[in-house]
Amino acid sequence: MREEAVSPVIGVLLMLTLTLIIAAIVNSYAGGLMETESKAPSLTLQMSYSIVHGMEIRHVSGDPLPISTVKLMVRPSETFGRNASQYSSHIEKRYITNSDGASWADNITSLRPGEVGYITNKSNEYNLSYLQYDLLDSKYKPYWFNQSTNAGNTFFLEVYYKNTMISRNEVLIEG
Fold this sequence. Notes:
Blueprint: H1 6-33, E1 43-50, E2 54-62, E3 65-66, E4 70-76, E5 89-91, E6 110-111, E7 116-120, H2 128-131, E8 154-161, E9 164-174
Parallel strand pairs: 1-9
Antiparallel strand pairs: 1-2, 2-7, 3-6, 4-5, 4-8, 8-9
């Protein structure tokens, strides 16, 4: 009886098993070295907008919102007409303040639950240059939130964290 063939088969299986074990160890070690991206905050925001008084952004619950890594956009809804949502505008952080008047661009690092951000009516401009800075040209006038004819319409406030939308709220324009 010849048993020569058993030894090479077992040898190949052992080498294959050893190779797989080494590959698993290297993979787990290398995976631990990689930087993981921080997860986006999960939060609930409430917004209100008045043509006379401005906008209020209230953090109701959830994770603190890191101001340095967020971008806020406003976008007219379809209540302004067909394709109105293409006219979005970026809100500059320097125009958003807390209850003490400190700017999000300078002094505020995060918006925590219970805190409020404001865009107030300055110099009787009804927030147009503060809220829709990208749409100041008069050809966009039908989409301006500060027009009394647009009271009752809605717009969206979108919050982006590292280019990922984390919040989108529909806001009613009050007179």
